[in-house]
Design a protein that fits this description.
The protein has 15 helices and 25 strands. The chain starts with a helix and ends in a 5-residue tail after the last helix. The longest helix is centred in the first third of the chain and has 16 residues. By secondary structure, the protein is α/β, with parallel strands linked by helices. Among the domains are: 138 residues, 3-Layer(aba) Sandwich (Rossmann fold); 94 residues, 2-Layer Sandwich (GMP Synthetase, Chain A, domain 3). 33% of the residues lie in helices and 26% in strands. It is globular and about 75 Å long. The chain binds malonyl-coenzyme A (MLC) and adenosine monophosphate (AMP). The site of adenosine monophosphate has 18 residues, from β13, β19 and β20.
C-alpha cells in the first residue's frame, strides 16, 4: 500500500479513474480514500486488521473504499455483486467482518443482514462526517491486506489472505514484465472480487500512474464503443470475453468492423488469462485486432505466476515462462521434481504467494509442501522452454467463464433439494465458456423440472454456478469395477 500511495502522490494531477462519465485524479483518490479511512477508524488509531467487507459497483467508489480500508489498517474483503444473500452471509460470517460498506445500489441487498448481525454498516453517500485531521496508521508490509474467496476441492469456498507485501510483489512484477507506464489507459470489465480485475487491471494501472476506466457490466457493444473513442491502449480479459467480442464483431457491418479493427491495432497490448485460451479464439482475435494475445497463468493464491513474453514469441496453447521472482517447479505424485518434458503438478514459491487460508490452518498446511512450495493442483509440461497446461488434478474443479467453481459445492446444495435423491456435477468442454457446468440427477419426483431446480438454486448460489445442462437418470452408471466415475458421467453429455 505504501508504494501505491507514494506512486499516486507522484502522479497527483493525472487522471486515475474514469467511471460513470466522470474523471478523477490521483489527488482526488488520495483525498477521498483518506476521508473514508477516517470514517472507518471512527476515532480509533488503527483498524488492526479488522475485516471490512464491501459491496460497491466497480468505479471510483470501489477504489476509494479499497484504499480507505488499507489506509485505516483494515483487511479488504470485496463481496461479489451477483451473489444471493446466503453467499454474502457466508463471506461476511467467515471473514468475521465488523464493518460492512455498500453503495446505494447494494445497500438494500445487505440491509437485512446488517439488521440481523448488527455490524457497523456504512452506506456511501450517507456517511457521517469524518474528523478534520486524521492520523492514519503506519502499515507494516507483513500485515494482512485482502481476503478473496476461492472454490476448491472442499464444499465451501476458502478465504485467501494476502499481505501488503504479497500484493506489492504481485503488482510490481506485472508492472515491470508488461511495461506499464503512466501513459497507459485500460478498461476494466472484470468483476472486482477476483485477482484478475483487482491486481492485474486496476492495481497495476494505479501503481504505474495510468488511467483505469470502468464498465461495471459486461456488454460487447459498450466495450467496442469505448474502444472506438481511441483512448484505451491496454485490455485484459478472460477467454469467454474475447469469444463474445469476436461473435459481436462478426455480426457488425463491414465498415464498423474496419473502424474497430483500426482502433484495436493502436493498442499497446492485450492479455488473456484465468482459463485456457482456445487456439481458435486467439487466431480469430488476431485477425480482428492484429494482436497476438499475451496468455498468462495465475491463481488467487499466487497472483500471476507464468506468462508469455511481452517482447518475444507468444505461443498459442502455452502459458509461457515463470515471471521474475516466481519460482516454479513441476513434481510427480511423490512430490519429486519431474525430468524436463514430463508432466507434473505446478508448485510455486515466492514473495507473491499468499499467507494463509483465513481461519483454516489445516487447509493452509495441506496446500504447501514440507519445504514451503504451494501446490496449485494444475498439471503442466515444459516444451521448448514454454509451459503448457494439461489439466487439473481434481475433476471437481470447474472453470467456466473464468470463474473457478467447485462441483462439490453445487452437489451439496442440490442434495438439499427435497426431490433429488442423488446427483453429480461435472464440467464439460465448451469453446465459449471453457467448461459448462452439467449435472446428473436422480429424482424422487419426476414432475419437478430442471427449470424449477434452477430457480430454486438461483436463490442459493451465484448465477455463474448454475448447471446449464441436466441429465435425469434412474441409476448411476457403474464401470467394470462397479465404480461410478465422473469421467463416465461426462459421457452422458456427449452429443448423440
Ligand atoms: C452466465 N451464463 C452462462 C454462464 N454464465 N452460461 C454458461 N456458463 C456460464 N458460466 C449465461 C447466463 O445464464 C445468461 O444467459 C447469459 O450468459 C448472461 O449472463 P450474465 O451473468 O449476465 O453473464 P455476463 O455478464 O455476460 O458474463 C459473462 C462474463 C462473466 C464472461 C463477462 O462470466 C465474467 O465476467 N467472467 C470473468 C470472471 C473472472 O474475472 N475470473 C477471474 C478469476 S481470477 P441468458 O440465456 O439468461 O441470457 C483467476 C486467476 C487468474 O482466475 O489467473 O486470473
Ligand atoms: P482462481 O482460483 O479463480 O484464481 O483460478 C485459478 C485457476 O485458473 C488456476 O489454478 C488454473 O487452473 C486456471 N488458469 C488461470 N490461468 C490459466 C491459463 N492461462 N490457462 C489455463 N488455466 C488457467
Amino acid at each position: 500500500m505504501q508504494q501505491l500511495l507514494q506512486n499516486a502522490v507522484r502522479n497527483q494531477d493525472q487522471t486515475a479513474i474514469i467511471s460513470n462519465g466522470q474523471s478523477y485524479t490521483y489527488q482526488q483518490l488520495l483525498e477521498s480514500s483518506e476521508v473514508l479511512a477516517g470514517q472507518l477508524l471512527n476515532g480509533a488509531d488503527d483498524l488492526n486488521e479488522a475485516r471490512v467487507a464491501f459491496m460497491v459497483t466497480p468505479g471510483f467508489d470501489y477504489v476509494r473504499v479499497q484504499w480507505g480500508i488499507w489506509r485505516a489498517g483494515g483487511v479488504a474483503a470485496p463481496l461479489a455483486l451477483s451473489y444471493p444473500l446466503p453467499s454474502l452471509r457466508y463471506v461476511i460470517e467467515d471473514t468475521g467482518a465488523q464493518i460492512v460498506v455498500a453503495d446505494e445500489t447494494y445497500a438494500a441487498v445487505l440491509a437485512p443482514l446488517a439488521e440481523e448481525k448488527g455490524f457497523r454498516f456504512i452506506i456511501l453517500g450517507q456517511e457521517e462526517k469524518a474528523a478534520t485531521t486524521i492520523q492514519l496508521p503506519q502499515l507494516d508490509r507483513s500485515r494482512r491486506a485482502m481476503i478473496l474467496y476461492t472454490s476448491g476441492t472442499t464444499s465451501l469456498p476458502k478465504g485467501v489472505v494476502t499481505t501488503h507485501a504479497n500484493l506489492e510483489t504481485q503488482i510490481s512484477t506485472l508492472d515491470e514484465a508488461w511495461q506499464w507506464t503512466s501513459a497507459d489507459h485500460t478498461l476494466c470489465v472484470l468483476p472486482l472480487h477476483h485477482v484478475h480485475g483487482i491486481v492485474n487491471v486496476v492495481s497495476c494501472a494505479l501503481w504505474s500512474g495510468a488511467t483505469v476506466e470502468f464498465l461495471p457490466n459486461f456488454s460487447a457493444e459498450a466495450i467496442f464503443d469505448i474502444f472506438r473513442s481511441g483512448r484505451v491502449n491496454v485490455f485484459m480479459a478472460v477467454p469467454t470475453i474475447y469469444f463474445k467480442l469476436i461473435s459481436y464483431w462478426e455480426g457488425l457491418p463491414a465498415d464498423e468492423q474496419q473502424q474497430i479493427s483500426a482502433t484495436l491495432a493502436q493498442f499497446r497490448f492485450m492479455v488473456s488469462g484465468s482459463a485456457a485460451l482456445p487456439a481458435s479464439v486467439m487466431e480469430k482475435w488476431k485477425g480482428i485486432s492484429g494482436h497476438t494475445l499475451l496468455e498468462r497463468y495465475g491463481m488467487t493464491e499466487i497472483g500471476m505466476g507464468i506468462s508469455n513474453p511481452y517482447d518475444g514469441d507468444r505461443r498459442v496453447g502455452y502459458i509461457g515462462q515463470p515471471l521474475p521472482g516466481v519460482n516454479v517447479r513441476l513434481v510427480d505424485e511423490e512430490n519429486v521434481v519431474v525430468p524436463t518434458g514430463q508432466p507434473g503438478e505446478i508448485q510455486i514459491k515466492g514473495a507473491n504467494v499468499f499467507l494463509e487460508y483465513w481461519n483454516r490452518p489445516e487447509a493452509t498446511q495441506k496446500a504447501f509442501t514440507a519445504d514451503g512450495w504451494f501446490r496449485t493442483g494444475d498439471i503442466a509440461v515444459v516444451e521448448e522452454g514454454y509451459y503448457r497446461i494439461l489439466g487439473r488434478d481434481s475433476i471437481d474443479i470447474i472453470k467456466s467463464g473464468g470463474y473457478k467453481i467447485s462441483a462439490l459445492e453445487i452437489e451439496e446444495v442440490l442434495r438439499t433439494h427435497p426431490t433429488i435423491s442423488d446427483c453429480s456435477v461435472v464440467g464439460i468442454p465448451n469453446e465459449e465458456w471453457g467448461e459448462l457446468i452439467a449435472a446428473v440427477l436422480i429424482m424422487k419426483d419426476h414432475s419437478v423440472t430442471t427449470e424449477d431446480i434452477n430457480s430454486w438454486l438461483r436463490e442459493r448460489i451465484p448465477g455463474y454456478k448454475l448447471p446449464r445442462q441436466y441429465r435425469i437418470i434412474e441409476e448411476l452408471p457403474r464401470n467394470a469395477m462397479g465404480k461410478v466415475t465422473k469421467n463416465d458421467l461426462k459421457q452422458l453429455f456427449q452429443p448423440a
